[in-house]
Design goal:
By secondary structure, the protein is of the alpha+beta class. The protein has helices at residues 2-16, 58-63, and strands spanning 22-29, 32-42, 46-56, 74-76. Helix content is 27%, strand content 43%. Strands 1-2-3-4 form a 4-stranded antiparallel sheet.
């Protein structure tokens, strides 16, 4: 999960600028566990949600025909 958050921070910095502040908090999405939402501090005044993300739920991996003990995945958008 920390790798995913690092990648999303990098994404936000590339899109909104290197000095962009981000925050991440827990959320619920049915296909990810754990799930998060990511926000950026827009123009230094208000928090703007830019995406939801999380680790692909093991059942999703299993239903795709893969072993969830061997494979993991990220989902974001």
């Amino acid at each position: 999960m920390t790798d995913l958050i690092g990648v999303l921070d990098f994404f936000a910095w590339r899109i909104f600028g290197e000095n962009t502040k981000t925050r991440v908090y827990g959320h619920h999405f049915p296909y990810t566990e754990p799930s998060i939402e990511v926000e950026v501090l827009y123009k230094g005044k208000r928090w703007l949600e830019i995406l939801g993300a999380g680790m692909v739920h093991p059942e999703v991996i299993k239903n795709a025909g893969y072993d969830p003990k061997k494979y993991r995945g990220w989902a974001f958008g």
